[in-house]
Structures are given as C-alpha cells and as structure tokens.
Amino acid sequence: MDSELLIVGVNHHWSPVEVRERLAIHPDKVPTFLQRLTRYRGVEEAAVLSTCNRVEVVLVAREVEEAVNVVTGELVTSEACSEKILRDNLLEYRGREAVRHLFRVAASLDSLVVGEPQILGQMKDFYRRAVATGSVGVVLHRCFHKAFSVAKRVRTQTGVANRAVSVSSAAVELASKVFERLDDKTALLIGAGTIGELAARHLLSHGVRGLLVINRNFERAVAVAKQFEATPMPLEELSQALLWADVVIGATAAENFVLTADVVRQALRQRKFRPLFLIDLSVPRNFDPKINQLDQVYLFDIDDLAAVAQQNKEQRAREADRAELIVEAEVDSFMRWWRSLEVTPTIVALRERLERIRQREVEQFLASHPELDNALLEDIRRFSRALLAKFLHSPLTQIKREGGKKEKLYLAAARRLFQLDPGEDDE
Amino acid sequence: MSMVMLLLAVGAYSLATATFLIHVVGGKQWSRRLGDVALIVGASAHAVAWGLRLAAFGYRALAPLPEQLSAMALFAVAVYLLVSLRVSLSAVGAAVAPLAAIASVSAYFFEAGGPPQTVPPSGLWVPFHVGPTLLGYGVFALSFCLSLAYLVQERQLKGKARSGIFRRLPSLQTLDEWNHRFVVWGFVFFTVGIVSGSWLAKQRWGELWSWDPVQTWSGGAWVLYASLLHLRSVGWRGKRAAQLVVWSFLFLLVSFIGVSMFFPGRHGVQTTWTRNS
C-alpha cells in the first residue's frame, strides 16, 4: 500500500526516433498533461521530461500497475501513437532503479553522447514547469534537487564532460589548438549539404565571427547562407575566399579535389602565411592530402577527426565509471531518506526524540532542586509524561489518519520540524 | 647563506622540471600546479641568493660567466612567471625549468670554487650594460623555450594529433604571438645593452667599436635578431620563425659562452675558477 517512485516512458535505448517524436510533449502542454495525471487517485506526484532522446514521466504512485496504465492512456490520447506501439516500446523503472535513472539522466550519463551538457538545462526547465503546475510534492522535489546536485558533482569531480567526442567537436578542439580564439576568425564552408551545415553550425556556436558559403550551385549557397546570416560566394571565387578564411570546411560530393596544394600554396603566400585550418568531411576527399605538407596549414580529414574523437571517448568512458560511483552513493543517501518517510518509523522517531528531551529537562530540573521529597518528584515525572502525551496526540493522529496524497508531505514536514534526520539538509 | 638559497633554487627548479614533464607526457593536473609552485619557490630562493651575493661582493659578483648565466636564468623565470599571470603557457615551463636548473647548478659549482676576482672598471657598467643585456638574453631564452614548444605542437598537429600531448600545450597562435613579443622585448633590452656597452667602450678603450671578440659576436647576434624581426613582417611566422629563433638563440649562447671562454679579448668576463690566484 506504500507509494513507489516510478519512471515510465520511452528513450533512445529502445525506441527509434519515429516513436519518440510521436510521443514528444511540447513544453507548453506540460501543465495540462500533468494535471490530467494527478487527477487519478493513485498518482501522488508527477513530472515529465521530453527531449529528443526521451519522453519520460516521473511519478510517485500508490498502485504501480494502475499508474502505468494511466500514463500509457494519457500518452496515447495526447499524441498520434497507437497503444500497441507504445506498449512495445515502453520502459519502466521502479524504486531504486528509478532514482538511479533520474540521477544518471541529469548527470548526462544516460545521454546518447555521454557528457553533453544540454540535458541538465532541459531537465531543470521541465522540473520548473511541473512545480508551477503544482504536481510536484515533497518526494519529487527532493529527488530532482538531488539529481541536479549529482549532476554538478559529476561535472566538477570527473572528466566526463570535458572532452570532445563527436567529429564536429573534435574539429573545434583541434581548431582551438591552432587558434587561441575563434571569435575573430572567419570560416569558409565549401559544399552546402547537410554535413557541411552541421559543421558550420557547430563552429558558429563556438563563436566564429563570420561565415562564407561556397557551393557549385550558387542558389543553394545563397539559401544556406541566409539561414546563418553568412556571405554566399560563387565557386569561381574560391581563391579569393581562401584569403579571408581561417577555417575551411570541405563537404561537397565532388569526385575530384576541390582544393589542390597549388591553390593553397598560392593563397598562403598572399595571406602572408597566416595559418589555415582545413577540415575535410567528405568521402571521397575534397582536399588534396598533400596540402598538409605545406607550412602553416593543418589539414584533418574525417578519419583523423574520428580518431581524435575516439581517443576522447575512451577517456570519457573511464571517467564515466567514476561518475557511476558518485551516482550510486547519492542513490543510497536518497533511498535512506525515502525509507524513513513512512508512518511507523516517523512516529517512533518522533516519540523517541521528544521523550529524550522530556527526560533530560526533567532530570536537570530535579537535580537543581534537591529539597523536593520523593512523592513530589514522582508527581513531576508523571506530569511531564502526561504533558508530552497531550502534545503528541493531535499530530500523531493526523499523521496516522492522513494516508492520502499528502501523507509524504506531513511525514517530511514532521521529520524536518523535529530534526529527525540529523545531518541531512534539504538541498 | 647565499649558497644554501642557491641550492634550494637548484632543487626547486629540478622538481619543477620533473613535474612539468609528468604533466606534459601524462596529462596530470596536480603535477602542473606543483610545477608552478616549485618554479615560484625556486625563483624566490634564487632572487634571495642573488641579493645576498650582491650585498657581499657588490657588482663584482656579476663578473663570472656562470653567475651571468644564472642571472639570465633568473630573469627568464621571473618574466615567465609574470607573463603566466596573464596567459597560461603551462607546458612551456617544461622547457624553462631545466634551463634554470642547469644555469643555477653551474653558478652553484662556481661559487663553491671561491669568490669572484675580476674587478669592474666602474660601477656604471652593471646597471647600464650588464643588466639590460642579461635581461635581454633571459627574455631571448624564453622565446627559445616558446619556439621549442611551438615546434613540438606543430609536429603534433601535422601528425594528426595522435598522442594527446597537443592538449597540454597552448595553441599555436598563443605560442607564436608571445614568441614574437619576447623577441621584441629581448631585442629592446639587448639593443640598450649594446649601445651602453659601446659608450662604455668609448670611455674605457677610446673607441665605440673595437672588434673585440665579444663585441663582434654579439653584434652578429644582434643582426640575426634584427633580421628575424624584419622577416616576420614579410610572412616568416609560425614554424619558420620558431626555427629561426632556436638557431638565433643557439648562436647567441655560443657567442656568449664560447667566445668568453676561448677568445676573452679584453671584455673581462671571468670564466675560470680562481681559488688560488
């Protein structure tokens, strides 16, 4: 009959993007979704997290099976997705598993790219929306706050987040070893396809000052340039563009080299040997590998970048092991708190604590009044016990009687007001 | 007492050398921090040793060649530490620390041999000639270290960054820019030293330039550094500039150490142990 922490949903481990995108919950629809959930009697608290890698509903519920059905029903009605597909993809985490999962998600240990930092911000945003909706109670409140602090610990105490593990970020990492800063550098994108766009976006997000776009089909160059507020240039002006650019990305479908050593050598002389950083993302390659032999030019093709990213991935995996230890310790601490949030242990702890205070005060009083005779002494003791019993009567009855959605709230409040968990603070 | 401080400096510089190497090769952050601390301790002890030495012998303390090398190393470390406040050159410490260790060891063994003998002609030559020259040489030594770091980093990137050392070294742009800055600063001090030296030569020998071996060779080094600065403006930057700095500094060292030892002329740098004289 006790309530359980529960996570129900789909994520990138099991479900393809076609399923995830159909279930995704727009941030604006979070309040209505959560309100519908908490209307059910068995659901005490609820929050939801919907990103491109996961749609997960976090619940505190009494009847686990019923709660799963409720969530399934709500997810099916909220978006165009058949119940069968959803049932096939649905993941469930309960109790300790659920807590661990939430902590690992916050710490970006469960991400597609382990260590990517966006997830924490998204999680905080969805948490805030749930709080505003009023569907978060004492358990989820503490659980999410713990998750955020776990994420912080993992970020500061392990190296999980500080290596570039994608090809694009490896390119940025290498560029930053040629150039100290990117915000006064210009990038040139040759080939305005999807891969090139992605790489350009990555560079821009790292603060590259300007972007030039060259494409065989000039209209396409114009279209892509518009999207990035970049400058489109026709292919014929390639050698001119090489004088302005510091970083050059090659991503065309050309069968031959778009950039030869001779062209680059000439450009270098004109740019007085200011360094050039070249990234060749195409297969077959766009830039003649001989270019790398020229002074002041650094050329990396897709395999070189993948090799750097792979090194970093291995390093990151080692760091992730350390992060898992942090998560495990924090899950333990949360579970201790969680188990204490039950009626009987709380009542016992409350009684013991007040009883200790009563005894200490009474004995101190009696010690400072040796003139009192034995009969009076006993009376005073009896009186103090009666007083304590009267004081406790009403709160204890309330706690025992409550048992509904607010039970955990009362229990948590009692534990906090009477300091029943020494050394535990709330954040 | 100055010997004790110098020994402490030698120890700290050696420790810094080891920890910086551990950092560059193994990527350990603690060892970089330890290296910085060791370098600061080393430079402080070194400076105190110098203060005591000057107090005991006056400017005469600067006459022996090993002492000049030690002063130059102290200038290099001090400038490195000052610049580190503004820009992290961390791994460059791996080149600065061993130079400082070698120079202070040589001074230590020289001092163990006895007090300096050569008497300077006038008190003025130290502040106006030897001071700026050694400061200039110290800054050139730093640019030499940066050039070595540049050449290593350049190889790393050309070799597709397979080993991970590239992460610990600063960017090529930083190395190149500071290298250039150090060459300019060093050149300024070096020029002041040569001009004041010529003026002192006029006072002492009656002519500004007398083709004294030390004068001649350092004149050559000056021309090298001047051309280095000029070549940069026509595109000799990066790897070529770094290589040129390495060769120029080696030339400078030869002219400084070799010529003083083998063709002393009348320049009055003490190069031999003089306990018995």
Structure, described:
The complex is a heterodimer of chains A (427) and B (277). By secondary structure, chain A is α/β, with parallel strands linked by helices. In chain A, the strands form two sheets. Chain A has a six-stranded parallel beta sheet, with helices on both faces. Chain A contains 16 helices and ten strands. Chain A folds into three domains: 4-157, Beta Polymerase, domain 2, CATH 3.30.460; 167-309, NAD(P)-binding Rossmann-like Domain (Rossmann fold, 3-Layer(aba) Sandwich), CATH 3.40.50; 342-417, no CATH class. With 277 residues, chain B is an all-alpha fold. Chain B has one domain. Chain B is 77% helix and 0% strand. Chain B is built from nine helices and no strands. In chain B, helix 3 packs antiparallel against helix 4.
Regions of chain B with pLDDT < 50 over 5+ consecutive residues? 273-277
Backbone structural class of chain B: mainly alpha
Number of strands of chain A: 10
Taking the sheet with the most strands of chain A, its summary is: 6 strands, parallel
Give the count of helical stretches of chain B.
9
Give start-end ranges of low-pLDDT stretches of chain A. none
Helix amount of chain A, in percent?
55-70%
- Strand fraction of chain A equals 5-15%
**Which CATH class of the largest domain in chain A applies here?**
Alpha Beta
CATH fold-level label of the largest domain in chain A? Beta Polymerase, domain 2
Number of strands of chain B: 0
Q: So, CATH architecture of the largest domain in chain A?
A: 2-Layer Sandwich
